[in-house]
Design brief:
This protein has 105 residues and is mainly α. The chain has three helices and no strands. Keywords: ATP-binding, Nucleotide-binding.
Length: 105
């Protein structure tokens, strides 16, 4: 969903990224701030890979928090909550998302 006039795209997409336009919180928003280098990776694969990388970073952060002498329980709880909300079992998808919109899936 983007305006037909490309000069309007950047401000419009920025409004979406900042959630100035109401978008449910369970919907992840990715905003591109420039042209990407050519790649064989499609949109869905990029998002799945990004989510898996985030899970790996969260798991490392949780491990790091867990081994210190003075454990920050609040930070540890928040990290576990964030990891649980991501629910990695749902990362792999089979969808037509992006088809017909210049995206390869």
């Amino acid at each position: 969903m983007a305006p037909a006039n490309h000069t309007e795209c950047s401000p419009f997409l920025q409004l979406i990224a900042e959630r100035d336009i109401e978008i449910r919180l369970h919907i992840d928003i990715y905003i591109v701030r420039g042209e990407a280098e050519p790649s064989d990776v499609n949109v869905v694969d990029f998002i799945v890979t990004s989510a898996k990388d985030k899970v790996t970073r969260l798991e490392a952060y949780i491990k790091e928090l867990s081994v210190v002498d003075n454990v920050d329980e609040a930070a540890l709880d928040l990290a576990y909550e964030e990891l649980e909300e991501m629910y990695p079992a749902t990362f792999e998808v089979s969808t037509g998302l992006g088809r017909g919109r210049g995206c390869r899936t």
